[in-house]
Structure formats: structure tokens, C-alpha cells
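Researcher: I'm preparing a figure for a lab meeting and need a structural model of a single chain. I don't have an experimental structure, so a prediction will have to do for now. The sequence is pasted below. Please return the structure as C-alpha cells so I can convert it later.
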Amino acid sequence: MRRFLSVLALILLINQLAPAQEEPIPPKRSRMVKMGLYGGYTPGWLFVDVKPINTFLTAGHGAALKDDGVLMTGGAGAAYIMVLPNVRVGGMGMSGGLKSTALEANGIRRDARLTVGLGGLTFEYVVPIVERFDVALGGMLGWGATELTLRQSNGGSNTWVGEQELFGSWTAGNPGNMSRTLDGSFFLWAPTVNVEYAILSWLAVRVGAAYVGMSFPSWQVDGEYELLGVPSDISGKGFMIQGGLFVGTF
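Model: Understood. Here is the structure written out cell by cell.
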């Protein structure tokens, strides 16, 4: 009996001295109203259709642009408006471009550069899935821009005056250096869906997709003159895969 009481007392003493072990609690679905604001870096890959542009370039002895998409970079930010639960409003802007070069045997070089830009207001409804993990459904309304810059060089040196003088290259029949810029501006609309995860209370990452639509184009040459007859399928519209790295409160 004495031995049994001694063993029981030893067990009770060890139980009192041992630290308590708690089972980890899995994350539960968050039912709290989202609050906070954020801002950060947003890269993306826009699958823009360059086939009609390449048809134009190759007809003028230029080189075709790559047709596997455009790397877009920019930034975004937003804040929860609180008037409507889990709704946030913000803004985003991104831009990217492609280049091509054609060099003829007679030394004439033709360069083309396509630049696509987009920006506007964002509206999103955030669905909390579990703690730190959300799905954001929304869209963007704003403006889009497409710029095609065409340059031709005869390979000679540029001089202020003389046979290859800069202003003289614009005279009729002179095959010297020339540059033209074709600018298109559009109304932009883009539905979006994003998956977001808060790594820390102040740091979050995003992966998502969007369809960038551009309507009601207006074209100019060299920023001064109206350009007519541009095919309707030349724009910066297309499907886009996007990401994000943000700091703020989540």
C-alpha cells in the first residue's frame, strides 16, 4: 500500500511539473467584416492579339512582333469602404511593351515598338474563406492606351546640318531617318478574380486573372493628327494573368 501511494504521489508531481500540451486548432471560416487598406506591386502577362499589327509591319518591310504576350508591370492599392461589408475601392495602373527590328542589306533599319498601358478604378467584393485566405471578385473601369512607334534609319550618322541633317530627313524623297507615332486611346473595362493570402498581418500575396476589354477607340498620328481607317481589332485587349505583392493591413 505504501509503495502504491508513493507511485501515485510521483505521478501527480510529474503531472503538475510537466508543461501543458494543447492540440493545434485548425483555422476556421472567418465571419468578421474585412477592414484595412493596402498598396503594392502588380505584375501581369497580357495575351494581346498582335496579328493585325504584324500584317501592317511586314507589308512595310518591318519585322513582326512576338505573339506570345506582353509582360505588364505596375501598382495597385485599395481600401475597404465600410459602408458595404467586405467591399473595397481602389486603383491600378500597368504598362508593358514589345519591340522588333528589321535590317535590310542596303543598311536601312526599321524599328517598331508597341506599348500597352491601362489604368482605372477597381471595385471588389472580398469573400473570406478561412483565416488569412480570401477570394476577391470585381472589376476595373478606366482607360487604356496603345502606342505604336515606327522608326527608320539609313544607318548613317546624324548631323545638325548637311546631307543627313535631322530636319532635312523629312523632305520628300529623302530615305533618311524618320519616326512616326500612332496613338490609340480606349475606354477600358476588365472583370477580375483574385485569390489572396496574408503571409503576415501586414504582408499579402495575390494570384488572379482578368479579361481586359477596350472599346470606343480614338487614334492620332504624332499626337496631333487624327488617324482614320485603323482596324477595329487593333487594341490592348486580351486575357491577362496577374499577381501582386502588397503591404498594409489585412
